[in-house]
Amino acid sequence: MVPLSYYLLLSGFLFGCGVAGFLIKRNIITIFMSIELMLNGVNLSFVAFAAHWHALAGQVFVFFVMVVAAAEAAVGLAIIIAVYRTRETLNVDQVNLLKL
Amino acid sequence: MNPMLNLWLIPILPLAGAAINGLLGKRFSRRAVTTIALVFSGAAFAMALWVTMRFSSLSLPYHESLAHWIRSGSFTVDFAFYLDQLSLVMLLVVSGVGFLIHIYSVGYMWDDPGYYRFFSYLNLFMFFMLTLVLADNYLVMFIGWEGVGLASYLLIGFWFTKDSAAAAGKKAFIVNRIGDFGFLIALFLLIKHFGSLNFDQVFQSVMPLGAEKAGAGLLTAIGILLMVGACGKSAQIPLYIWLPDAMEGPTPVSALIHAATMVTAGVYMVSRSHVIFERAPIALTVVAIIGTLTAFFAATIGVVQTDIKKVLAYSTVSQLGYMFMACGVGAFSAGIFHLMTHAFFKGLLFLAAGSVIHAVGGEQDMRKMGGLRTKIPWTFWSMTAGTLAIAGIPGLAGFFSKDEILWRAYQASWAYWLVGLTTAFITSFYMFRLWFMTFFGEYRGEVQDHSAHDAHGGHGHGGIHESPRVMVIPLAILAVLSVVGGYVGVPGSLGGNNRFDKFLGPVFHGSAPADVQQAPMGERGVPEQGNEGPEPKSGDSTELIFTAISVAAALLGLGLAWQLYYRNPHLPEKIAASMSGTYQTLLHKYYVDELYGALFVRPLINGSTRILWQGVDRKIIDAAVNDAGDGARHVSDEVRHMQSGNIRSYAGWVAAGSAVVIAFMIWIWTGAR
């Protein structure tokens, strides 16, 4: 049996990678992926706790998060395509104005 | 049951006049303004006369409640009026002399551009003064008290474009505030301890109390605080300093407000509160000492003044001192008697002085007058009547009242009498000095005496001329009153029976506490209340001797003035030079203004400027407000760089923030272990 702390460390590492990627990367798609990474890091800790405490609530929450992530992906990717179409770049530093 | 007198009409009538003239007078012609002012003040006087005629049929004191004002628990104050012998005397003096002075003002102020304003203020003054004397409780009296102060301020500063007049008005107002402070505290004490401000109720609660013989108590405190108020309004030491400056106002104002009526309000108030004072011997002594000292010091200052109105002003202060001396020795009716005769002769003297000033083209310095006797005979003769009356020459009004005060003062203590007598001598001296300097000798002024025919052509122009009839008639009436006004109070020693004292008897007698029924009262043969038995007509030979002494003092003053200012007009200068220390001290009014300036005014100004303005206001209050603003701007200046619009920097802050929160929670968690 793998101890809980291992899961949590992995979860924290994934979340940290996500944060780092979010802060460092300039490409919107990479940033988007970093967000997904953070969400999945959190998901990992949810299921780990759920398994550890034998409680289903954590697993149910994971589904919620996955649903939200899917919805977000759908909307987010659409926005990214729209952005690329209008600005012809995916560099966030060049997309810092609300109006064109 | 008393008939309805509608006393409230008496003060309201002048108020209506003031309102009409004040609001609309600017558009009226002078004639219309005159009509309104005279009709309304005359109506008040007529009403007062009507009340006098019905007076004997009243059961006194007569009360009249107009409206409720304050109702709080058991404490009530009404807009109510009160009439007894004392208020009747005051009512007649105020409305009568006031009306005469209104008439006089028509001539005196005719050329002034503020004509309507003047009469509006004058009527307003009448309203407040009549409210004061007719009040049924201390609070309504206080309305009048403050109101006359306001009217006085407005009228002193009537020529407000003149700096000195504006400053004098302010001085009067501020000094009066100090007195009013004492008055107010006294009222609070009355409310706290007697739960009422109604004269009747307060006096009924006070009546059973004994005199506070040893040590000071509540009544002593109330008495002294009331006296503080009276000192302010009636220009007594230490608050007399405003009255001489108040002469900046037009002369009719000086006559009406600062000689005949308003300044006597303090005497009236003390007399009205006699029930309290009789039970507070210490307060009474304070009153007597203040009165005596004021009478003496003001008289000595009057000796060296050269401004004709200033002499009269100090004379007024001095005479008011006499009235307080009388009140202080328990002779309230003598004080009121002197108040009445003083209103006649001092009003007359001021009006006559105004007429003199008018005649010589606005000059007030007596050194530039002289020899006016034949040129303005009406003024001269009325002024003569006034001078003789105030000096205490037998047969005139001032003689009887002053003599009575001196006699009663002697019965209390020979010291009061001695100072009073000296003052009488000085009074006689400075008044005849004024008289000789103004009317006798050579004319020393600049206004040339054109032929008498020219003077009638234009009013107020040309040479020395007698005043118009509208000014002379009030002079004549007051002169007659100054001559005969004293005969209502001829003392028993001179074959009279002092009707005035008897008339006021129901107010003043029988109210003293049982343990100090004043001994002197019986000695004089003054009847106790209800005792209408035959008078001892023979009179007291001691009193006759004292009368003779005071007459001698008056004649001595006359003689000295005659020597110095008629026979040897250059002698005074030599005397002044040889006694320059005394002379300078007197000329600078004992340096009291300077003393107050150094003691109170300058520290206040310095304190306000350096500490309160430069220190507290600018360095603390202003600084706090400014620094708060500056600080907010500086901090924002720095902080606004965070709001860069760069999403990743925001994310960085969020991450850093969460890191801090997490670290904090871990720290707590480990700490809690």
Which descriptors would you attach to this protein?
heterodimer; A: 100 residues; mainly alpha; Helix Hairpins; elongated; B: 673 residues; 27 helices; globular
What is the gyration radius of chain A calculated from CA atoms? 17 Å
Given the structure, what is the number of helices of chain B? 27
Report the largest inter-chain contact: A-B, 6 and 7 residues
Q: Give the overall shape of chain A.
A: elongated
Into how many domains do the coordinates of chain A divide? 1
**Total beta-strand segments of chain B:** 2
Mean pLDDT of chain B: 86
Structure, explained:
The complex is a heterodimer of chains A (100) and B (673). Chain A has 100 residues and is mainly alpha-helical. Chain A has 3 helices and no strands. In chain A, helix 2 packs antiparallel against helix 3. With 673 residues, chain B is an all-alpha fold. In chain B, 70% of the residues lie in helices and 3% in strands. Chain B is built from 27 helices and 2 strands. In chain B, strand 1 and strand 2 form a beta hairpin. In chain B, helix 2 packs parallel to helix 4, helix 17 packs antiparallel against helix 18 and helix 24 packs across helix 25. The longest helix of chain B is centred in the C-terminal third of the chain and has 48 residues. Chain B is globular, with a radius of gyration of 31 Å. Chains A and B meet through helix 1 of A and helix 27 of B.
Record the SSE blueprint.
The complex is a heterodimer of chains A (100) and B (673).
Chain A: H1 4-24, H2 28-53, H3 57-87
Chain B: H1 9-24, H2 30-54, E1 62-72, E2 75-83, H3 85-108, H4 115-134, H5 138-156, H6 163-194, H7 199-206, H8 218-233, H9 242-245, H10 251-260, H11 265-272, H12 274-278, H13 281-304, H14 308-328, H15 332-359, H16 377-391, H17 397-412, H18 414-439, H19 452-457, H20 469-484, H21 499-508, H22 519-523, H23 541-567, H24 571-578, H25 580-587, H26 592-639, H27 647-672
Antiparallel strand pairs in B: 1-2
